[in-house]
Amino acid sequence: MNLQAALKQYFGYDAFRPGQEEIIGNILKGKDVVAILPTGMGKSLCYQLPGYLFQKPVLIVSPLLSLMQDQVDQLKQMGEKRVVALNSFLTMEQKKYALHFLQEYRFIFISPEMLLQPQVKARIQEIELSLIVADEAHCISQWGFDFRPDYLRIGEVLPQSNRPPILALSATATDTVLRDIKSYLKMDEPFQYMHTVNRENIHLVKKVFTHREEKIEWIIEHVKSTAGPGIIYTQSRAKAEAISLQLIQQNVAAAAYHAGKEAQDRQFIQQQFLAGKLEWIVATNAFGMGIHKENVRQVIHETMPATLSNYMQEIGRAGRDGDSAVAFLLYCDGDEQFAKFIATEDLPKEVHIERFMQTVAAGQQPESLLTNGELSEVVFRVLSYWLARESPEKVKSRMQNMQLKKFEEVELVLKLISLEECMRRQVVRYFGQHLIEQQENCCTNCGIELSNLVQKRDLSKGTVKMTNWQQRLDKLLLRNL
């Protein structure tokens, strides 16, 4: 099969990006594939082209509803009508219709939670699929940076005899995460493609402050005088709101984005950012996955992320157009303690495990602990998964090990800040890769000239944007402040 001709016919492209042709070629041979491709390298094409070449549906398991909807919308914009998203947004009638005609769709997007519903699971196993895709596959791993217990069960749902090939996609993955992906998906000697995680056009800067207030002051002064678009990552919803409000007061078109906002508000903010109506987004890590904005010029971490995987995923949202972008990592003494708290906040503690088992022993449904607020949704999901498979003592030990591992991950981010070794080299090594050569304007430790990388902000342009945008902001975004 001439893949180049198929690429031109279905997508109008003259050439594949690195890795795409090898990945698709192995899928067409019926092999399982693990593909690690950085953000912006065309992961979706790796299942979309096979979807046109096969005459059977492609099932894509996607972890986030916003990501799923974004992918569905993109396909529809390309003219594809045989696409559906099975998620909680569907009404009962829409779900029944979709399940009845499931075999007729070319692309079926589904959340892991929906995949596990008995009715859906049975219907999936009835139809003949051409390919199964685990998107953002790092979520499968218990050591992944977005651990989702329901993702661990994908392998249990998929047929083990005469099943189609499985494609696991992610932007980054350590060796440990890769082993988990292959194991939990029950992959059969998969072909593995790993693109370098190094993004040469993203320049790495670290800045150390004595007081936390100085970080905020620096952010405000820097943002109001330099050009975006940009994303500021912070660890709390309150701080996201506070920083965005300060930027608005400086006539910067900014908005806070976090899971505490209504879905409609988040969608509006996202669309405004993509359309260029907003210069900056101030966000928790709830923002970014599935956001396809080519020209993000700056990413600022107001405080250190919990893992190097988080860091690489988040800075990877900059410079997708190939032009220069800058990633700023800000640090103040003690930030690592807050990062450890955030990293382990949703891990079940010993008291949670004991309470869960007491409820079960009393003949009560453990869901009551979720309803009455004793357990968070994440803690409940994690315990529901592991306590169905292991003894309480083993689960306690597992959670302790996971806490230690997460602490170790934070310490690796701290080394990125404290060591004088090339920042890029440290990050690339974390993913088991090596830098071939040193580049110009690499990072703070190697020497960097920011005047050539960060443009001055066009103040008049920012003000014009602000006039129309602020009218909507008052109604939609500041009503709860």
Describe the structure in your own words.
- The protein has helices spanning 3-11, 20-28, 45-53, 65-77, 92-100, 112-115, 118-126, 149-152, 154-157, 175-184, 212-225, 237-249, 263-274, 308-315, 335-344, 350-361, 367-371, 377-386, 392-418, 423-430, 459-476; strands at residues 33-36, 58-61, 83-86, 107-110, 131-134, 166-170, 191-194, 202-209, 230-233, 254-257, 280-283, 298-301, 325-332.
- With 481 residues, it is an alpha/beta fold.
- The chain has two domains: 3-194, 3-Layer(aba) Sandwich (Rossmann fold), CATH 3.40.50; 202-338 and 412-476, 3-Layer(aba) Sandwich (Rossmann fold).
- A seven-stranded parallel beta sheet has the order 3-4-2-5-6-1-7, sandwiched between helices. Strands 8-13-12-9-11-10 form a six-stranded parallel beta sheet, with helices on both faces.
- Strand 10 (254-257), helix 13 and strand 11 form a beta-alpha-beta unit.
- Helix 16 (350-361) packs antiparallel against helix 19 (392-418).
- Mean pLDDT is 87; it is low at 462-476.
